[in-house]
Give the backbone structure.
Amino acid sequence: MKHINVTIKRLCLYIVGLFFLSLGVSFSIQADLGVSPVSSLAYAFSLSSGLSVGMMTVVANILFIIIQVILSKRFDIKEAIVQLMIVFLFGFFMDATLFLLRLFPTPESLLMRWGFLVISLFVVAVGLLGYFSAKFPLMPYDELTHVVSERFNMQFSKAKISSDLLNVGVAGLVCIIFIQSLGAIGIGTLIAAYFIGKIVGLLMKHYQKYLVQWINKNKEELYKEESKENATLPKENTSLSS
């Protein structure tokens, strides 16, 4: 039962992390200064097609799964299904959080827009802290970074930069072709690409250990109980009889 509680905690942390991640991206969309690299392609598709960001998030991540298969030259149906389930949940959260934020006045002044952008950086970072700390499967975009790293023998940090730049470049190209502007790409995209990683690093350094302790609390208690039970068991008599 206690092992089940650990899994439930991880799942809750994972879902909350995805929600905050989508909320942060929605703040950046409302700021209209450029969205973070992870959602730049999905937002470019949304601007070009007129369909919801959540729906285009699913489309963009299906493309990321296809690219994973091409680069790794392997296809795991169970892994793909899990990634799609995560993507649909994240897409739902994107539309839900955008709907919630649009209930409030749209930031029109430059000061308010920059305020929304700064908020988005920290909210995305909090979401990533929970999302990574839960140790559940990654979304296709993040998993693609691992595939790129392995396929081209690159350090993960360099693979992350390469994936972000490629994603932003394709998103910008899509916007230029279909809406004749950069649309999803702006100064906010560059700021997010640089600062979110640093903020996540600081949060993980100071707070991840507490999340891990909270997750494993029941596991540690179970281990202590098992240790006590083992200590109370009668020991076998290994001495030789005279």
Notes: The chain has a mean pLDDT of 84. Residues 2-221 form one domain. The chain has one domain: 2-221. The first helix runs from residue 2 to 31.
